[in-house]
Known about the structure:
With 71 residues, the chain is mainly α. It contains four helices and no strands. It has one domain. The protein has helices spanning 13-23, 28-33, 36-45, 54-63.
Amino acid sequence: MNAATGTTRQFPWDELIALGLGRLRLSPRDFWATTPRELAHVLRAFGAGQPLRRPVLERLMTMFPDTREGG
């Protein structure tokens, strides 16, 4: 709850799950075993909330190259 405005904000589960399972390609078991502190470090490392810079994009492309299944 935001004490200043009296409003609540929903936890962004959809975005967090998309990051963990989609972008990071964690298994569901590994994702759910990850601590909030670990996820916070990952979000900072990937520049969450900031525009994607070219060096970060290149690092991500190296870590997660596009491949076609079956060939």
